[in-house]
Amino acid sequence: MRRTLFICIVVLFSSIVTANALNEVVQRVADFEGFWGAILVARGDVILHAAGYGMADVERKIPNTPEKKFRIASITKQITAAAILQLAERGELTLDDPLSMYIEGFPNGEKIQLRYMLNHSSGIPTMINTGELLERIRGYEDGKSLQGAEIEYISTLPLRFEPGTSFLYSNSAYFLLGVVIEKVSGMPYDEYLRENIFEPLGMNSTGYDFNEYDSGWARPYYCQSYVIDNECIREADWVDRRLPGGAGGLYSTVYDLYLWNRALYGTDILSRESVKIMETPASQLYEAGLGVFVGTEFIAGQYRRLVYHDGDTKGTSTRINRYVEDDIFVVVLSNIEGKDFTSLAHELARAVITNDMGR
């Protein structure tokens, strides 16, 4: 059992960078509601701002820096989607394949296309990673692996609607997509990503968290995970990080996610056609592409196309924004749970545009 740490917050942030227009945006947010984590803002090949704020580890007095590794939660989904598209480019699967081709006996599997799972129209109910979820899944082990028990548990959940007819955000579907990657490639999910995405891109600080994170791996580059309650900070509740799989199990840094962003503008990982498929929503109402959401934001007098995703899990809040035509990239990774960085990412992009930064 981990010792729970309670420390009252006196100062909600500490910045390691000198003042600039982007840092001023973050400081305003930190002054108002507090911010711990790391932020990177770039335009094209130019990194305009990369900084850490607050504490990575309160007990050891270690500050956050841009090099710190954070759990990225549901930002994982776009990397899972890219792996599926990569396998499709190689002719090893198609987006129209039914789930039943890869997980035999899954209820209604013949109706659930991989495409539906990718754009959250499969009807498969979602899972939230909690201690209670782990206990429910454990009830299905009976000689199975934890992954097998999780598949069995998901298979008992009735579909919410006919696949392909509506929208329901589903962590469960993305967990199953991670299983599909393993079935098709013959490799564990984390190894496939490492060999086919992370190593080719030089994303050397990105990987899957098999609970090693909790024991302080890769010190001094890890950070603890916290909750702010009633003007005090405590360590976030423990959950089994193996459960999210392709839905949210990765960790990374702002620098590695910058490399990921640049790769999507080239052809190192996916063809331009596959990226176009990834970033085309099936429905303008729900804005769901494949592993990302696609919409617009009104900045400096015009609507700008935005590809984005949030992440939230125990002890982690994240946001990633790509302003496609402006070639602006914003990533926010925090080791405080329950935060919404929609406004912060918007204000950072607005500062870049209104100050004509990176031109």
Task: Tell me the fraction of residues in β-strands, as a range.
Answer: 15-25%
Helical content stands at 25-40%
Q: How many helical elements?
A: 10
Chain-averaged pLDDT = 90
Oligomer: single chain
Q: Can you write the helix and strand succession as a string? A: EHEEEEEHHHHHHEEEEHHEEEEH
Alpha carbon gyration radius: 20 Å
Shape: globular
Query: Can you summarize the main beta sheet?
Result: 6 strands, antiparallel
**Structural class, from secondary structure content?**
alpha+beta
Number of separate strands: 14
Distance between the termini: 52 Å
Query: Largest sheet, order of strands side by side?
Result: 3-2-14-13-12-11
Low-confidence stretches: 1-19
Can you walk through the features of this model?
The protein has a domain at 78-185. It has ten helices and 14 strands. Helix content is 30%, strand content 20%. Strand 8 and strand 9 (232-235) form a beta hairpin. With 359 residues, it is α+β, with helices and mostly antiparallel strands. It starts with 5 loop residues before the first strand and ends in a 5-residue tail after the last helix. Strands 3-2-14-13-12-11 form a six-stranded antiparallel β-sheet, with helices on both faces.
Looking at this protein, list some descriptive labels.
359 residues, alpha+beta, 14 strands, globular, disordered N terminus
Summarize the topology:
Elements: E1 6-8, H1 21-33, E2 37-43, E3 46-53, E4 55-57, E5 62-63, E6 70-71, H2 76-89, H3 114-118, H4 131-138, H5 146-155, H6 171-185, H7 189-201, E7 207-208, E8 226-229, E9 232-235, E10 250-252, H8 254-264, H9 272-278, E11 293-299, E12 302-313, E13 316-323, E14 328-334, H10 342-354
Helix pairs in contact: 1-10, 2-6
